[in-house]
Amino acid sequence: MEQPLALPELAAHGGLTLRSWGLSDLELVREASEDDYIPLITTVPCPFSEPEGVAFVERQWGRVASGAGYPFVIVESGGRPVGNVGLWVKDLSQGRASLGYWIVKSARGRGAAGSALVAVARWALLDLRIPRLELYVEPWNTASVRTAERSGFRREGLLRGWQQVGAERRDMFIYSLLRGEF
């Protein structure tokens, strides 16, 4: 298991590119902040303001600099940023890391989340040599369930009351992908 010194740019299926966050991505943060769900499960500011958007981008830089995680902006072939996929390594000493992803509403349904998830999983398993990847999905979120399963992740079970989302604790499906399965 190795941690990179910087965030690489990754190519993903469908002409997508995964790259680091920049201040040019404030419109993506603004659109994400207007979503009913994204601000509940992330640090995307709600309501949006330019200073809060800048602070969000700077937090992404800090995660890379500290080695806590690797957040990528998902960019369509025409250059439009449409979401985020992140690799979070707080449990790396235990041989595992977790992934998370979100796509703004205007770009959903085109496979961007799945393509980005596969690209980051490949990087994590093959290049960083992380033995186990995990992700967590609320049972009602059928689009994310499909994304996880189509990307090769296997559902292991239901974690009851696993995560605080907004004002309540919610159940999560846990999914995993092992290095030898990719």
From TrEMBL:
Tell me which residues make up the N-acetyltransferase domain.
16-180
**What Gene3D superfamilies does the entry give?**
3.40.630.30
**Domain of life the protein comes from:** Bacteria
Under what name is this protein listed?
A: Protein N-acetyltransferase, RimJ/RimL family
Q: Which SUPFAM superfamilies match?
A: Acyl-CoA N-acyltransferases (Nat)
Q: Name one Pfam family in it.
A: Acetyltransf_3
Q: Name one GO cellular component term.
A: cytoplasm
Keyword set, alphabetical order:
Transferase
* InterPro entries documented for this protein: Acyl_CoA_acyltransferase, GNAT_dom, Ribosomal_N-acetyltransferase
Q: Name one GO molecular function term.
A: protein-N-terminal-alanine acetyltransferase activity
